[in-house]
Design goal:
The protein is α+β, with helices and mostly antiparallel strands. The protein folds into two domains: 2-214, no CATH class; 240-392, Reverse transcriptase/Diguanylate cyclase domain (Alpha-Beta Plaits, 2-Layer Sandwich), CATH 3.30.70. Helix content is 69%, strand content 9%. It is built from 13 helices and seven strands. The protein has helices spanning 2-15, 24-59, 68-93, 98-125, 131-143, 148-167, 170-174, 176-229, 240-254, 271-278, 280-298, 322-338, 367-384, and strands spanning 261-268, 306-309, 312-318, 341-342, 348-349, 353-360, 390-392. The strands form two sheets. Strands 2-3-1-6-7 form a five-stranded mixed β-sheet, sandwiched between helices. Strands 4-5 form a two-stranded antiparallel ribbon.
C-alpha cells in the first residue's frame, strides 16, 4: 500500500505544476522565453533540410515518379515544409503567450512525430535502420518546451507506431530484436531527457524569478531610503541634499533648455518670537502650515519646495517671466498671511513671510550660484524694509 501511495505521489509530481499556482504564468513564460529561439532554429533547420532533400530527390537520376517509395519521400518532405511555413509565423505570435505557445508546440511535435514515423517506415522499406527515429526524438526532448508528460505520450505513440510499421517490412522482420531494443531505449531516454530538462528549466526560471523579485524589493527599499534622505522629516519638503542633487545638478546640465530661472527664498518673519510665545510644538505646526502652502505652489512645477534650514524655504521655478515671478511671490506671501494656525488653546495664530526673488532670463555658466546669491540679497532687503513683502534682486 505504501508503494502505491509513493507511486501515486511521484506520478502527481510528474504530471502537475511543482510550484505555487500563482507563479505558473510567469514561470511558464520564463521557460518559453529562454528556449524560444532554439525552437525557431530547429524549425528553420528542419525546413532547410526538407528543401535540400526535395532538391536531391528531384536531381537524382530518373524521374521522381520512378517509384512509389520515392514519391512518398517527396510528399513527406513537402508536407513537413508546408507545415513549418505555417508554424513559424504563428509560433512568433506566441512568444509572450505560454498557453498559445504550448498548444502550437504540441501540434508541431505531433506533426514531427508523424514525419519521423513516415521516414522510418520508408527507410525500412529500403533496408535502412531507424536512424531518423533515433536522431529526432532526443532533439525534440531537448528543444521543445512543452509539459513532459504530454511529450512522453507523443514519444510512446511514435515508438509504438514506428515499431509496428517497421516490423511489417522485410528489414524489420529480419532485425526484430535490434529494432525493438533501439526504439524502446531511445524512447525511454528521450522521455528522461524531456522530464530532466523541463524541470531544470523550470527550477532555473523559478530561481531567477525569486532573485529578480528580491532585487526589485531591495531597489524599492533603497529608493525609499534615498527619498527619505532627501526629505525634511517635519515638513515633508526637500532638504539641502535634495536642493543640491535634484535641483542644482539638473539645472547645471539642462538649465539652458528650461528657459528662465527664478529662485524664491522665504523667511518666516519673527519666527523666534512666535516660537517663544507659543512653544516649539506650535512652532512645528507653523512650519508645516507654511510648507503645505509652498507644496501647493510647487506641485505643477519640476521641483519640490525645499526647507533650507530653520524657518527658511526655497522654491525654484523655470519658464516664468519677470512679472509672473513677482506675481507668484505675492500670491505665496498673501496665502501664508491668510492662513490661520490654531494653537493649543483653540485660538488662531498667523505669520507673515519675507520673500527674496532672483530672476534670470536665460541660463549662463554660474547662473545657479548667482541666482541663489541674488535671492539671498533680495530677502535681506525685504527684511530690512519692515518684512512681510517681496523684494526682487536687480
Amino acid at each position: 500500500m505504501k508503494i502505491f501511495y509513493k507511486l501515486k505521489d511521484k506520478l502527481h509530481f510528474l504530471t502537475h505544476f511543482p510550484y505555487e499556482e500563482t507563479y505558473r504564468g510567469r514561470l511558464e513564460l520564463g521557460v518559453i522565453s529562454s528556449n524560444y529561439r532554439s525552437e525557431r532554429v530547429i524549425a528553420f533547420a528542419m525546413l532547410l533540410l526538407q528543401i535540400i532533400m526535395i532538391i536531391i530527390f528531384t536531381l537524382r537520376p530518373g524521374n521522381i515518379f520512378l517509384s512509389f517509395r520515392r514519391i512518398r519521400y517527396v510528399i513527406t518532405y513537402a508536407a513537413l515544409s508546408a507545415s513549418i511555413l505555417v508554424f513559424l509565423p504563428i509560433h512568433k505570435r506566441s512568444e509572450k503567450n505560454w498557453r498559445m505557445h504550448t498548444g502550437i508546440s504540441v501540434a508541431f511535435c505531433i506533426l514531427l512525430s508523424l514525419w519521423v514515423i513516415s521516414i522510418s517506415y520508408l527507410d525500412a522499406l529500403g533496408n535502412v535502420s531507424i536512424v531518423i527515429y533515433c536522431s529526432i526524438l532526443p532533439v525534440m526532448a531537448v528543444f521543445f518546451v512543452i509539459p513532459p508528460h504530454i511529450l512522453s505520450i507523443i514519444f510512446l505513440f511514435t515508438c509504438i507506431i514506428t515499431d509496428c510499421l517497421v516490423l511489417s517490412t522485410p528489414y524489420g522482420r529480419e532485425n526484430i530484436f535490434s529494432t525493438l531494443i533501439n526504439s524502446i531505449f531511445i524512447c525511454l531516454l528521450s522521455i528522461i531527457y524531456a522530464y530532466r530538462i523541463y524541470y531544470t528549466r523550470l527550477t532555473n526560471a523559478y530561481d531567477k524569478m525569486i532573485i529578480d523579485d528580491k532585487n526589485q524589493q531591495l531597489e524599492a527599499v533603497n529608493k525609499d531610503l534615498d527619498l527619505m534622505s532627501m526629505t525634511d522629516a517635519l515638513t515633508a519638503l526637500g532638504n539641502r541634499r535634495y536642493l543640491n542633487e535634484v535641483v542644482k545638478l539638473p539645472l547645471e546640465k539642462y538649465g539652458q533648455y528650461m528657459g528662465s530661472l527664478t529662485v524664491f527664498l522665504l523667511d518666516i518673519d519673527h519666527f523666534k518670537r512666535y516660537n517663544d510665545r507659543y512653544g516649539h510644538r506650535q512652532g512645528d505646526a507653523c512650519l508645516q502650515a507654511v510648507a503645505s502652502i509652498l507644496s501647493s505652489f510647487a506641485e505643477n512645477n519640476d521641483f519640490r519646495a525645499v526647507r533650507y534650514g530653520g524657518e527658511e524655504f526655497v522654491l525654484v521655478m523655470t519658464g516664468l517671466s519677470a512679472d509672473s515671478s513677482i506675481e507668484k511671490a505675492e500670491q505665496i506671501r498673501k496665502s501664508i498671511a491668510a492662513v490661520r494656525i490654531p494653537d493649543s488653546n483653540g485660538n488662531d495664530t498667523s505669520v507673515t513671510v519675507s520673500i527674496g526673488v532672483s530672476f534670470h532670463q536665460s541660463w549662463q555658466p554660474g547662473s545657479w550660484e548667482e541666482a541663489f546669491s541674488g535671492a539671498d540679497k533680495a530677502l535681506y532687503k525685504a527684511k530690512q524694509n519692515c518684512r512681510d513683502q517681496v523684494a526682487l534682486f536687480q
